[in-house]
């Protein structure tokens, strides 16, 4: 066993003085979270924040768990993605709007061959989304809705009317491989899954997760909030740490990558 030295800071107000604060910013941070250069198949990265005691939300939303360092990484991950994949429960709970990328980020994306702004792709078996919600009204690019044949056609029509690109799979459920195939079919292969626990649990159960970026916020919250993955099926997926970062406020940010498949 070894002690891990992680004196790395992510925010500019780290309070450190001297010439080498160990601060990670800008290009260095983007490099730490770059997608692999070679991607023979889509790369599924998930990003979550939780409390030290494992809660994924406080009062039904995750916002209060966020810290300045978590926000930096959150934005860095969005900038690198082709698509932000999210379950309908999270969209409803968090009132998701479209992704925002600042001017410098757009330039970097376009220079790398990406679109200026990644779309949000929502998974909803029931197509149960409010057509007047921010997902449709506060976005620069059309959201994608992945639903299934059993979804109410009236609801689906309302989402199309609201501007969504709707993809319907067969049957009454949507499997993990169908979710990934839906976005890959649009040429979107750098996948950033922002949850929630049900969608992530399914991707874990289907062994489709390549990477987990997990922020531990320096708080205990108790309560009844669940963990980051929930699924009726248990899976054991071995991961290896790619890096561990810490901020001066106690935020710990880990990046875990799936061990190569045999
Ligand atoms: N701390 C964090 O980083 C973080 C991140 C994300 C979310 N959260 C929290 O997690 C909570 C929401 O949890 P959740 O488990 O309800 O979130 P979720 O996974 O976003 O949503 C579940 C819903 O998404 C749809 N869905 C997900 N997977 C599906 C699949 N494979 N096939 C068909 N539909 C699928 C279904 O929608 P329909 O019912 O419409 O069919 C299902 O009811 C919120 O409190 C949120 O704040 C926390």
From TrEMBL:
Q: Which pathway does UniProt place it in?
A: Cofactor biosynthesis; riboflavin biosynthesis
The UniProt entry, under Gene3D superfamilies, shows: Dihydrofolate Reductase, subunit A
Q: Where is the Bacterial bifunctional deaminase-reductase C-terminal domain?
A: 42-253
* Stored InterPro entries: DHFR-like_dom_sf (IPR024072), RibDG_C (IPR002734), Riboflavin_Biosynth_HTPR (IPR050765)
Alphabetically sorted, this entry's keywords are: NADP, Oxidoreductase
The UniProt entry's GO biological process terms, in alphabetical order, are: riboflavin biosynthetic process
For molecular function, the Gene Ontology terms on record are: 5-amino-6-(5-phosphoribosylamino)uracil reductase activity
Q: What protein name does the entry list? A: Bacterial bifunctional deaminase-reductase C-terminal domain-containing protein
What organism is the protein native to? Rhodococcus oxybenzonivorans
């Amino acid at each position: 066993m070894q002690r891990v030295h992680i004196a790395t800071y992510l925010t500019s107000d780290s309070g450190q003085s001297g010439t080498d604060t160990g601060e990670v910013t800008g290009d260095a941070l983007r490099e730490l979270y770059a997608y692999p250069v070679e991607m023979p198949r889509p790369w599924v990265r998930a990003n979550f924040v939780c409390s030290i005691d494992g809660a994924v939300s406080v009062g039904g939303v995750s916002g209060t768990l966020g810290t300045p360092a978590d926000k930096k990484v959150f934005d860095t991950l969005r900038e690198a993605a082709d698509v932000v994949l999210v379950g309908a429960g999270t969209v409803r709970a968090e009132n998701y709007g479209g992704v925002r990328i600042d001017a410098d980020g757009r330039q970097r994306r376009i220079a790398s061959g990406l679109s200026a702004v990644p779309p949000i792709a929502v998974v909803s078996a029931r197509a149960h989304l409010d057509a007047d919600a921010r997902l449709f009204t506060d976005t620069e690019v059309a959201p994608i809705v992945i639903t299934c044949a059993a979804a109410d056609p009236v609801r689906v029509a309302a989402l199309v009317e609201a501007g969504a690109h709707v993809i319907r799979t067969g049957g009454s459920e949507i499997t993990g491989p169908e979710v990934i195939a839906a976005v890959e079919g649009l040429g979107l292969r750098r996948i950033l899954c922002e949850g929630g626990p049900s969608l992530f649990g399914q991707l874990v159960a289907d062994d489709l997760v390549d990477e987990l970026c997990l922020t531990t916020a320096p708080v205990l919250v108790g309560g009844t909030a669940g963990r980051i993955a929930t699924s009726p099926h248990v899976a054991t997926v071995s991961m290896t740490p790619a890096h561990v970062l810490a901020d001066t406020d106690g935020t710990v940010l880990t990046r875990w990558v799936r061990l190569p498949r045999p």
